[in-house]
Amino acid sequence: FYLERSRGRNYEAELQRCHPEVALVEFGDYHPLKPIMVTDTKTRRGARKGSTSSSSSSSSSVPPDPLSSMLDGTDPLSMFAAASASETPAMSHSRREKEEEAVGPDFEPWSSKRGEILARFTTTEKLSIVTAVVSVGKAPSPGSSAVSEKVRTRLEELDDLEEGSQRELLNLSQQDYANRIEELNQSLKEAWASDQKVKALKIVIQCSKLLSDTSVIQFYPSKFVLITDILDTFGRLVYDRIWTMCSDPRPLPDSFTVEDVNDTAKETCLNWFFKIASIRELLPRLYVEAAILKCNRFLNKSGIQETLPRLTAMIRGIGDPLVAAYARAYLCRVGMEVAPHLKDSLNRNFFDLLGTFRQISGESVRNQLVLQRVEVPEYLTLYSPAISWILQCIAYRAPEDYINCAEIWVEFTCRHFTKREVNTVLADIIKHMTPDRAFEDAYPQLQSVIRKILTYFHDFSVLFSMERFLPFLDMFQKDSVRVEVCRSIMEVFIKHQVELTRDPVILNAMLHICKTMHDSVNALTLEDEKRSLALLIIGFIRMVSFGRDFEQQLSFCVEARATFCNLEPVLVQLIHTVNQLAMETRRVMGGNHSRKTAAFVRACAAYSFITIPSLSSIFSRLSLYLLSGQVALANQCLSQADAFLKAAVSILPEVPRSISVEGKLRSSESFLLDFINNFLATLLVVPDHPEHGVLYLVRGLLNMVQDYTWEDNSDAKVRVYISALPLLAAMSQETYLYSIPKVDSNETLYGGDPKFLSEINKLCETLIGQILDHLKALGRDEKVAAGSRLIRTSGLTRRQGAVAFSLFGVLLAHGDLRNNKLSQLAVNLWNLSHKHGYCETRISVRTLESIKHQAQQPNMTHLSDTVQRLTLQSRT
Amino acid sequence: MSVTLDIRLKRANKVYHEGEAVTGVIVLVCKEPLQHHGISLSMEGLVNLQLSSKSVGVFEAFYNSVKPIQLISSNIEVAKAGKIPGGKTEIPFEFPLQTKGNKVLYETYHGVFVNIQYTLRCDMKRSLLAKDLSRNCEFIVHCQPQKAKVAPTPVNFTITPDTLQNIRERSALPKFLIRGHLDATNCVISQPLTGELVVENSDVPIKSIELQLVRVETCGCAEGYARDATEIQNIQIAEGDICHGLSIPIYMVFPRLFTCPTLETTNFKVEFEVNIVIVLHDDHLITENFPLKLCRV
């Protein structure tokens, strides 16, 4: 019957087919094997706009070549060309993009999920499909206008379909099944194109019904994909049809309101809803109404908002939990497409899903699984696409809710899963929090995520091998928060990293984190803050060890120096590290450097030598010069050692008289004296430079001491002189008290040369002369002060006594008191120190006892003479 | 020489109320000028009553006495005999929807034994050689909204084996407890029937729960009456072994034309009921009946 009619032309249908909106028939036409096409939609859209603006309706669907609009209606064939061209996927693509604009490109579209589902849920079992043989050609005669008659026929047809001649196709392979569904998809489009709306509806109902069939349950997710494609097509057809009804005289704008919709269109739309409301079975009624959810826009403003909760509740009537879960996924899908802002229904769906979860372990499901021989774990995986989709919808642009959940979830994941899963969670958080810089409002939660991960992951090689961990840190873009996070990571690292490490993953990540902390330092950073940051970074540096690969360790230090140049304590640590490295090299080589290691330790020295000047703290510089000098010496780098020590001496004048210690200004004198004493002790083993004079460094030091502007009323200078005397005494020995292996000290260089010894003696005499001058000056000043009746003048005599006693002690210990002159000097000093009664009697007594004790030694008997002349003044 | 005649109402939904004017155009399309003997338009509203076959035997005598009840009937001349020019001609018309005397315009209703229908009929008389042309067009009458407000009164129900009547063997019944409520049984026809239902427990899994909308049509007079209940539609609200303890929405849209405000006249009655039908997996069928009162506000 229909074939006979087919020679007739249904111009309206043809016209609709030509219309761009109806051309979208192809939109839902996915074949599982069809590759996803990517086209430059921008150009397409532009072209489409251009063509729709042209006047003739037939040209509005001309393919996206703006020039083709020239042919507007002039060519009788253009209509056919247009009709076929409009079915190109490119056109449908542009429309797809337009639809997704509602949710934005950050929402992973269904289209990208479906392929995956189809590939994953397959079966080799035989499938069956129950379809009604769709009777053809019962199109209502256009003449009959009696509503009742028309409606009745249509309802009868609906009944026909539902209860009528059904046919069951058995033994279908998966591919057959897909093909069959595709056939239904085709017949849907054909029916629609030939204005058989009722037949189209029947097909859609029939397809939806297939979703209540869960035999061959493994295939269900794929079946869902195939069938909802058809539903999508149908939804679009209906929407576009009604949309077209309103396009006269001008197409509806995308943002149209109910007022823009004419009565006929509204009535048609209402008819669809009434028709669907009378569908007998639950599942088709639900799915088909969901498919045309968008059409509510034509009827009233709040339609979608009211429909979604109703359909959501309706799903509760679905007994099979799997079928229900997928119905929810579909509802969320259309909901997101049409009204992504309506979150309540999405949440409701999820909670209902959770509420019915117990059904999974219920008897009905169990029986079904036994019957189909499907294990529970496999069965559970069937839910994953649906649940994942629902969650994706819920989580979309819900950063606040999202992050609050994620914050909790991450702990669960950390506790029960491995880094892989945690990494997945992190990736997801990044994905959700990046758009619109949502992370800015979620720093506390994000910090909490880090804290939780740090609570459970102490192995930093594992932690940093999560590839999303560092990108996650990048979300902390507010400096203070960022530093705080880095700090917390560092604290855990220092606390829990027990073994030294050379793991490049850890090193890279930690360097990144430390650099972040370092770079946060600016002129406004408090000292305390700097110190604590520096401590953390130092903690990291101390954990780095490349084992025997000393060169790499050195190059790490080079890199670290460049990275952390603003934090002085870190630089100090680096110098220590490098010095340690040199000493370690020496140890490994047993003190005998090869050419290569010799070059290496020289490189270490060079590192220190160029790093030290960048320090601002003078005492850091001094002590590091000295230390590095000692290390260089220990490694037989004589000229390097010389350079270090010379540098130390040369900066002595820069030492300020007062320095800040823990925020308070204090005199630097005691620090300086300590340093010089230390320095002097080192000088014993430093061989003289062949090109410079004898005792070049000692003289240099003493000259600097002489020129230094010491504090007024200070005895520091002479105290240095007094300290230098034991050094000079030690230098004049045949065998030195200590020496450095493989380094010839002056004892060997000069071999007790009398010239050398006399130089030493001259130096000693000069020093003693200076000290005595000082003592005299103190006595003189005392008299002047007493004469002018100044108060507190006794300080001078007290100082005089103390200096004199110190010199006495040195002479006693190092001087040869067989020399009468020296012996007399000692006695005079003793007397001077006791003159004003400031000496502590106890010390004096013990000194005398000690001398007497020494006098019993062989070669020391002369001391007993001396001791006779030392009298104790009683203070009584 | 072809000609088509059509009646197009101005309102897309074709719904009119008493006192309003039914407006539209008569559309004539012909290729050549057309000679005719006058065009007239008539409006008619009828109640058709029919007795069911099962009642026929009992009320055979009475059967023939059931005649259509005329609610409204009027006729106007649209055009006097003359010529219509070739092409498309539209003749506008306007018909007041007004009854004579104290007759009431019942709401349009398409039932089985009672039909209330309003039609416009356009007739074109033509010469002896050509056939007269005629075209029918149904329009829909909604009665005036009732003044009194409808206060919805929820109706609670509990269904257990003990609450059932008409059972053969009560002991053979599995145990179940189904609770629920309808938000109202006095319903506004333009709004859905709503409520909730909870399967608290059931020994045998549920197979299906359905809402069956039933029309109860009564035709009769003093001598006797025939009362028939037939299904209008059946809406499934639950399929399969649904989750116990979870409330399931009861929701049904009243279909247009097939329902009307509950109607009671001296000659006939149109009433509606809803059955909640619970089918258990062992094919036990449990039905709970609720009479409804439909109204239009």
Automatic annotation (TrEMBL), chain A:
Superkingdom of origin: Eukaryota
Keyword Protein transport set for record: yes
Source organism of the structure: Lates calcarifer
Family named by the database record: Belongs to the VPS35L family.
Location of this chain's protein in the cell: Endosome
GO CC terms of this entry: endosome
Listed name of the protein: VPS35 endosomal protein-sorting factor-like
UniProt keyword Transport present: yes
InterPro entries: VPS35L (IPR029705)
Keywords: Endosome, Protein transport, Transport
TM regions (residue ranges): none
Gene assigned in the entry: VPS35L
Low complexity bias: start-end ranges: 51-62
Residue span of region Disordered: 38-109
GO biological process, one term: protein transport
TrEMBL record, chain B:
Subunit composition and interactions: Component of the commander complex that is essential for endosomal recycling of transmembrane cargos; the commander complex is composed of the CCC subcomplex and the retriever subcomplex. Component of the heterotrimeric retriever complex consisting of VPS26C, VPS29 and VPS35L; within the complex interacts with VPS35L. Interacts with SNX17 (via C-terminus); the interaction is direct and associates SNX17 with the retriever complex. Interacts with SNX31; the interaction is direct.
Organism the protein comes from: Lates japonicus (Japanese lates)
Family under the similarity heading: Belongs to the VPS26 family.
Primary location recorded for the protein, binned into one broad class: other
Domain of life: Eukaryota
Keyword set includes Transferase: no
The protein's name: Vacuolar protein sorting-associated protein 26C
Gene Ontology biological process terms, A to Z: intracellular protein transport; nervous system development
Keywords: Endosome
One GO CC term, this protein: endosome
Record SUPFAM superfamilies: E set domains
Function summary: Component of the commander complex that is essential for endosomal recycling of transmembrane cargos; the commander complex is composed of the CCC subcomplex and the retriever subcomplex. Component of the retriever complex, which is a heterotrimeric complex related to retromer cargo-selective complex (CSC) and essential for retromer-independent retrieval and recycling of numerous cargos such as integrin alpha-5/beta-1 (ITGA5:ITGB1). The recruitment of the retriever complex to the endosomal membrane involves CCC and WASH complexes.
Places the protein is found: Endosome
